[in-house]
Amino acid sequence: MTIKRLFDIPHYALEKYPKADMFVTKYHGEWKKTSTQEFINEANKISRGLLKLGIKPGDKIALITTNSRTEWAIMDLGLSQIGVVSVPVYPSISPEDYEFIFSNAEIKYCFVSDKDLFNKVMKVKHNIHSLQGIFSFDNISGAANWKEILDLGEDDSTQIEVEDLSNAINSEDLATIIYTSGTTGKPKGVMLTHHNIVSNVLGSIPRIPRKKSLDYKDTRVLSFLPICHIFERMLFYLFQYNGFSIYFAESIEKMGENVKDVKPHYMSVVPRLVEKVYDKIYATGSSAGGLKQKIFFWALDLIQKKKTVSKPSGLKEIIADKLVFKKWREGLGGEIITLVSGSAALSTRLNLMFQNAGIPILEGYGLTETSPVISVNTFGKMKIGTVGLPLDNLEVKIQADGEITVKGPSIFQGYFKNEEMTKEVFTEDGFFKTGDIGNIDSDGFLQITDRKKEMFKTSGGKYIAPQTIENLAKASKFIEQIMVVGDGEKMPTALIQPDFEFAKSWAMRNNLNIGATPQEIAQSTELKERIKKEINDINEHLGNWEQIKKFELTPEIWSIDAGLLTPTLKLKRKAIKEKFIDLYDKMYEHHE
Questions:
Q1: Contact, 519 vs 554, CB < 8 A?
Q2: pLDDT band, residue 545 (cuts 50/70/90)
Q3: Domain AMP-dependent synthetase/ligase: where (predicted)?
Q4: Contact 28, 45 (CB under 8 A)
Q5: Burial of 585 (0-12, 13-18, 19+ CB in 10 A)
Q6: Beta pairing partners, 87
């Protein structure tokens, strides 16, 4: 069968790869499996139930879940096959953003996973005139449960109506509106059609390798990134297409346990998570004491000297692999075929290290507006430090100012109710402007150097690309977050959030008293001196005009809740600068 619309994928999976555990979610400590057939049956009930409620093709329904779960998948299929436009929303955004999105998209119904989200929506419900009802997946007293819709659709005599609507849906019809949390301003509704996402799924399939020796029935994926994010969602369809079982992780906190339970073959990650996994490995290895600690550092030293990716060769590497790196792999369940990384730049140093430890990472690049994959590395065609070769069905063009632009079937239709902004992001010959600066090397690999918007000029007229410097700095154990600033100033400086936990253990090892709270730690002169050493090391790799001349430590953790990071953990630069404006002013008060 040919796949033209999102809801064709589960039917293709049923025909080609029927399985007992298409989706698996943990409820009250037990993993509950849903088969391919059950998945389709339940989605049909949702479709029939919604039609009974008077829902029509083109209506908008919001889906919000704290952690991905099978109910989300059932809702997604139930909506898409009757032409309803799904509006998945980040759980972590503010009630004000909920109100804006719901009103802007004219949401009719909303489905939430739990009590906290239910309360959050209830707070603003009275301001949203289109909203007719809220349903929840969990049982919440006083809230309508999603099972009411399933019960409404129990009678399958109206299934013909569902099928008629499905048959009438064109691949060019709108499938979803995804609101991207801009690092500035109000969220923008990105309109994606069935064709946009399906073409990206089909274009990405050759890049995410299947293991020939592994039967689809035994292939497992652990999914824990927010499914409202197009990166995880596109992979969610790609894994269905391949007949892989998708296990939904309980939460980022429970990742360790879930990995042991599931022993996944595939996982998608963001660089921040790879950094956290490495920090955990490092903390364990460096505090092992005695011979174990010596072996850990010896193996680490060996692997860090490798400048290319290769299997262990020679006695030393084979011993290091057996004693140390095998444990790293076991920590990720022991069966990983590959991690797929997106959403931000992955440090070349970490990427190389993981690849050589036998944990392959395929790094890719894309935006919500491009459904999302523009390019991705794959086995046999990989270059560390790049985001891989562009997909075969896309055309990538570097503009005169270095901006990456792209054309092809997965490029979005425009921003919902915002023609002006839509016009701004396309070139005259129809290429979408990504807002990223990069180049294509002689082998065709795409390299990202910075966000166009984030580059700034010092008062001396020199351009600074902050992300490049920040990625170098985040390799330091002492630095959890860093933001390079200095637009229009004499020199670049940095606001740094130290890794408070690491700083405490470092202080203990060195018998230093740097305090216990983030406020006290940020005031510590010893810590500041130590971080200065790290900054000096980084400066050696930078041009004179790019070097960080001063920095200040911030007295709190930068988090999503504090409004300093976006839901995908990118820096909200304006908010961070405003929050720590005193520290910023302090750095620029005494220009040399």
A1: no
A2: confident
A3: 15-416
A4: no
A5: exposed
A6: 62
Name the residue range of residue 477's domain.
Answer: 456-589
CB 133 within 8 A of CB 221: no
CATH number at residue 562: 3.30.300.30
Q: How many structural domains is the chain composed of?
A: 2
Q: Is 432 helix (H, G, I), strand (E, B) or coil?
A: strand
Choose one of 266, 296, 326: the last residue of a domain.
266
Rounded CA gap, 363 and 385, in Å? 9
Find all residues with CB under 8 Å of 585, minimum gap 6, and list them.
none
Side chain identity, residue 278: Y
Paired sense of beta strands 338-341 and 361-366, if any: parallel
Beta-carbon count within 10 A of 55 CB? 21
CA distance 561 to 90: 12
Give pLDDT tens digits for 117-139: 999 999 999 999 999 999 999 99
Distance CA 139, CA 343 (A): 34
Amino acid identity for residue 104 in this structure:
N
**Whether residue 76 has pLDDT greater than 80:** yes
Helix (H) or strand (E) holding 389: strand 389-390
pLDDT above 90: percentage of residues in the chain: 80
Residue located via tokens 């790293």? 328
Q: Alpha-carbon dihedral of residues 460, 466, 472, 476, nearest 10 degrees?
A: 100
Are 120 and 95 in contact by the 8 Å Cβ rule? The answer is yes
3-state helix, strand and coil shares in percent for the chain, rounded to the nearest 5 = 40, 20, 40
pLDDT value for 402: 92
**C-beta of residue 550 within 8 angstroms of C-beta of residue 543:** no
Q: 379, 360 in Cβ contact below 8 A?
A: yes
Answer whether 438's CB lies under 8 Å from 401's CB.
Answer: no
The CA-based dihedral angle spanning residues 467, 468, 470, 471, taken in that order and rounded to the nearest 10 degrees: 110
Q: DSSP letters of 501-514?
A: HHHHHHHHHTT---
Residue 173 placed within a domain: yes
CATH number at residue 187: 3.40.50.12780
Burial level of 347, CB count in 10 A (0-12/13-18/19+)? middle
pTM of the model as a whole? 0.85
Residue 556 lies in a domain: yes
Asked whether residue 539 is assigned to any structural domain, the reply reads yes
Q: Across the chain, what does the average pLDDT equal?
A: 93
Note whether residue 313 is domain-resident: no
Q: What sign has the CA pseudo-torsion 259, 262, 264, 268?
A: negative
Band of residue 592 on the pLDDT scale cut at 50, 70, 90: very low
Split at pLDDT 50, 70, 90, the class of 184 is: low
Buried/exposed 361-396: b ≥16 CB within 10 Å, e otherwise: bbbbbbbbbbbbbbbbbbeeebbbebbbbbbeebeb
> Which of 266, 285, 304 is the last residue before a domain boundary?
266
